[in-house]
Amino acid sequence: MKKLLIAIIVMVPILVEAQQPKMYLKLFGGVNATTLVYKIEDVDNDVLAGWQAGGGFRIHHRKVFGEIDFVYFKQGITFSPREDDELSIEEDINVHLRGFEIPMTLGYVPVKKPLYGCFLYGGIVNWFSMKGSLEYQGEEIIFKPKEVHLHFYNLGARFGVQIDVAMFNFDFSYTIGITNHFREKARTNSHSLCLNAGLLF
Questions:
Q1: Across the strands, what pairs with 129?
Q2: Most buried among 65, 109, 120, 155, by the most CB within 10 A?
């Protein structure tokens, strides 16, 4: 009887601890690509590519988890001179956009083992435009979002999957824009792919 009582006393705290939510800190970086689809006739899509870096918090409890991240990103596109352009340019124009985003996601954990796990998630992304730059003929021009008709704030819906391998985290996501990217009446849809690799603490 004493052995059973001792076993219960030892096991109860372990079981209670196992049911507690676990919080992880994340640091990560990666690459991204965004396609801007203009709902205007005879206007081609633009594809921007770049990188991002950030950190965040993940809270995991049994088969569900929630996460919030804080990410700085930079994207760019190059416009080359063409004969049919209305705007006459002699050299390439390099445009760089910078921003800050706060993804807030919830998800399901189909697999969770001591050394690996799989996390499926969805949520929203709060996207804030920062100052960008334009490079032409060796000169750099800094511009604010409103000066190029960009919204300061945009909202997106994100879906993705994360894979944990020991302390390493790999995250692949797709984001579709909910709000219009530009301050124009014509609709501009955005579609973004993002790949991150990071560390869990």
A1: 99
A2: 65
